[in-house]
Amino acid sequence: MSKLLAATWRLSPGLRKILSNTSWLLFDRVFRMGVGVLIGIWIARYLGPEQFGLYSYAIAFVALLSVLSTLGLEQVVVRNLVRDEARKDETLGTAFVLRLLGGIITLLSAGGAIWLLQPGSELTQWLVVIIAAGAIFQAFDIVDYWFQSRVQSKYTVYARDAAFLLAAIVKVGLILIQAPLIAFAWAILAETFLSAVGLFVAYRLSGERFSAWRADLKGGRALLAESWPLILSAFSVVIYMKIDQVMLNLMVGTEAVGIFSAATRISEAWYFIPTVIVSSVFPSIIQAKRFGERLYYERLQKLFSLMIGVAFVIAIPMTFLSKTIVVLLFGEPFAGAGSILAIHIWAAVFVFVGVAQSSWYVTEGFTKVLLRRTAASAVLNVVLNLILIPSYGGIGAAVATVISYAYSAYLGNLIDTKTRHIFYLQTKALFFLRSLRA
Fold first, then answer.
1. What is the DSSP annotation of 308-374?
2. What is the DSSP secondary structure assignment for residue 434, as one 8-state letter?
3. pLDDT in tens, 159-180
4. Which sequence spans correspond to the domains of the chain?
């Protein structure tokens, strides 16, 4: 241990800062994953496949419209803050107003869409509207962008984890008092509100002032002009991540959604890993480009190798233990989720790769390429779902997910000459090759 500490101390201050930031984010994600999975399992056991399916459906439905609130701003804003810290108040203020307006549009759109699609289901309508209201409070995520640019994510970890823990306690209480399904939607909204309050406090305690923020119309147009491909890209991503649950509900039924959601809860619980690493490494990858293409792509290669190695370590054992894990965690009523999990877990390989390459797309200014790729993947997912779900149900949806993820994050890079070099880097990592000529 002493040698490890000594080695860490000899690292450059910048690298030590990245490692420290990564450790905070890793703690945050592990904590959320651990507690979230446990609470989610408890809720699923309490509600049963049918009501849990409705609960999951409402969350997925809101997620489809969530891009209207996020507006694809995160990486663009973080990049601008890294490049020009002197204009941070203008950047933050403008982004906050955009996110606030986006949150209001999300709420109105979700409410109107669910009323048109399911006019006779009042419970479903209320679930969607309550959960969607949280998009307004998520405007305070702009504070997180600021801390990301400074590689100081521990402050947002404090804020969000406190809100998450309080909400988890409330959900446990709701289970114990045998509360109705709609109460859990209110708990989701409460967590979003408390997280916003926590971010507000964290920003103030760091010595910054919200009163210094100023919105700029021209700056807003510039942000949207650059982020609109990311908005459409994010919408495409959400489609091929959440549309399966919506289509399962419409084509098979609520119980099928509950079974499928149980599998994806376990599979997607691991997706925090690439997000944690990339969110900390993203600023250093941008800076590496200033020192030359060689260092830039060497860092990307190492990132791809790390991501794929970790994904394999997760996917292989999960494949063989899927049914045992599902029954152990969710109970016998959810046993059908085992076969779905054994397939869906392999989407993690391509999710990890996709998150790793996202920084490259933004740095190179290839947001339109990303848009085309994810849009094609979303269409592919929907088509595959239409073909496979009627015959194979949740298993068909899982197969559609893996194929569409593989195209989006890996196979599509071979087709486009602009991204072919990334395909070779990914292939080297995927097949553990030392060299591969582009």
1. HHHHHHHHHHHHHHHHHHHHHHH-GGGTTHHHHHHHHTTHHHHHHHHHHHHHHHHHHT-HHHHHHHH
2. S
3. 888 888 899 999 999 999 999 9
4. 11-430
